[in-house]
Amino acid sequence: MTKTTFQDPSTGITFQYPSDWKVTSKEYADAMLGNDGGMDNGLNQDPKLVEPIVLLLPESLDGSSFLILSELLPFPVPIEKYTDLTRNSLLTDSTIKLSDNLPISLGNMSGLKYNVTSTSDPYLQTQILFVNDSNAFVVGYTVGETEKSQNIMDINSMIDSLRID
């Protein structure tokens, strides 16, 4: 299967994705994620500072998704502090449950990864957080039910190829 390279010149994010995954339009990503990217972690009250960078869906439309958000921080914050703030904002919803943080390393970046589940809605999303100076990045993905093993392999390959220059 051929791979396509996604590049975002403003953030320096690049990664490769399989040809049966499609980048959604900015309008679709904004509508799906809400104009504020669906995040309020307490650091930024201005939704314009949280930007969806990319949302990908597989052609099978089985519920899988891969997304990257960028947040401009008011000052450089260690990854642990940013993760605590993000987790605390998620936990304001009593239906949300979070797994423990797991350290993850990609290229020259260290991040933290955890799973988000909801008791009101049967989904599981994994989030990986990275901080690069005053920029924070959230990589979120969900694996649908039908093409599960293939989509997990696709998502892992996208994550493995992810770089922020």
Structural overview:
- It is a single chain.
- This protein has helices at 26-33, 79-90, 148-161, and strands spanning 3-8, 13-18, 21-23, 50-58, 65-72, 96-98, 102-106, 109-118, 124-132, 135-142, 163-164.
- The model is unreliable at 36-45 (pLDDT under 50).
- It is an alpha+beta fold and 165 residues long.
- It has 3 helices and 11 strands.
Rg value? 15 Å
Shape descriptor: globular
**Which range does the strand content fall in?**
35-45%
What is the distance, rounded to the nearest whole angstrom, between the alpha carbons of the first and last residues? 26 Å
Q: Roughly what percent helix?
A: 10-25%
Count of extended strands: 11
Low-confidence spans: pLDDT under 50, at least 5 residues? 36-45
- Count of helical segments? 3
**Structural class estimated from helices and strands:** alpha+beta
- Biggest pleated-sheet summary: 8 strands, antiparallel
Overall pLDDT score: 87
Q: Secondary-structure element sequence?
A: EEEHEEHEEEEEHE
Map the helices and strands:
Blueprint: E1 3-8, E2 13-18, E3 21-23, H1 26-33, E4 50-58, E5 65-72, H2 79-90, E6 96-98, E7 102-106, E8 109-118, E9 124-132, E10 135-142, H3 148-161, E11 163-164
Antiparallel strand pairs: 1-2, 2-11, 3-4, 4-5, 5-10, 6-8, 7-8, 8-9, 9-10
Search tags:
165 residues; alpha+beta; 8-stranded antiparallel β-sheet
